[in-house]
Amino acid sequence: MFFRRGKKPKEKPEAKIIIPDGLWLKCESCGEILYKKELERNLWTCAKCNFHFRIPARRYIALLLDEGKLDEFPLALKTRNVLGFPRYSEKLKEAQQKSKLEEGVIAGRARLGGETVVFVATDFGFMGGSMGSVVGEMVAHSIRHARKEEIPLVILTASGGGARMQEGIFSLMQMAKTSAELALLAQASIPYITVLTHPTMAGVMASFASLGDIIIAEPGALLGFTGPRVIEQTIGQKLPPGFQRSEFLLEHGLIDMVVHRRDLRSTLIRILKILMIKK
Q1: Which of 51, 87, 142, 158 has a beta carbon 3.0–4.6 Å from 107's, enabling a disulfide?
Q2: Is 65 domain-assigned?
Q3: Looking at the structure, do residues 223 and 129 belong to the same domain, yes or no?
Q4: Chain centroid offset of residue 15 CA
Q5: Same domain, yes or no: 191 and 154
Q6: pTM of whole model > 0.85?
Q7: 76 with 204, same domain?
Q8: d(CA 243, CA 220)
Q9: Which parts of the sequence bind Zn(2+) (predicted)?
Q10: Binding site for Zn(2+): what residues are annotated?
Q11: Other C-beta atoms within 10 Å of 137: how many?
């Protein structure tokens, strides 16, 4: 075969390597590119910087409870747009479809290390884990159930939204209601353990999340009432490094321990065994 001078034969284009979407994720903290399957094996924690990714409530149920089972309390109440807040009804439907939950909380009876407990978990995937009237009532119902049955209460929180603004004062009332129920639980000497995950903020943190007899937090979780940027703008000062993160709050006595996700179950079992020693 002959070619004209100055011209080269056409080369076959190399086949493009197609990488499916969703195989890699970027760490929100250090920026490391992480293989999704490896991230799952590592319980959704970054192997480089230990950042704990948010995971839904049902994953925590599978991770923490015996056989990953929760005998759920029926959700007898349904959230209504009582204030006629614009697009609230549509947002509720969107949240339900996205999270596969009726509301931003799951609660029920379970066994943890063989010990019967009432277990509650809020889910960030449902409107930021915010506390509306139904969420507050479910938490209050769980507290009452633990008091009636005289069994420990464990609540895991993931709420960046705090009290749900679309319900106004009805949402804020849940802070007082859940706190009052916890006071009765304390009078009955029933153990209450809270597990705070990233982020636990605003009305949730200012009520039942911060009232545990023992407060555990995942590493690096943002915990507080108002976010650090708002505080800096309000006081006109730069906040200390790590302000409102788990480690900072442990150092300053607001929480009792910081526990890696892989050690949460064993830690809870150990605490329950100590608290439930029969005298």
Answers
A1: 142
A2: yes
A3: yes
A4: 44
A5: yes
A6: no
A7: yes
A8: 10
A9: 27, 30, 46, 49
A10: 27, 30, 46, 49
A11: 18
Strand partners, 245: 222
Alpha carbon dihedral 174, 178, 183, 185, in 10-degree steps, equals 160
- Domain presence at residue 7: no
pLDDT tens per residue across span 51-92: 788 888 899 999 999 998 999 998 778 888 888 899 999 899
258 is a domain residue = yes
* End-to-end C-alpha distance for the chain, whole angstroms: 97
Structure tokens that stand for 2 in this block: 């002959």
Do 29 and 112 share a structural domain? Answer: no
Domain boundary (53, 71, 101) is at: 53
Strand partners for 116: 111
Which residue reads 């015996």 in tokens? Answer: 66
State the virtual CA torsion across 75, 81, 85, 88 in degrees, nearest 10.
50
- CB burial string 233-251: b at 16+ within 10 A, e below: eeeeeeeeeeebbbebbbe
N residues, the chain: 279
Q: Which structural domain, as residue segments, surrounds residue 42?
A: 22-53
Number of domains in the chain: 2
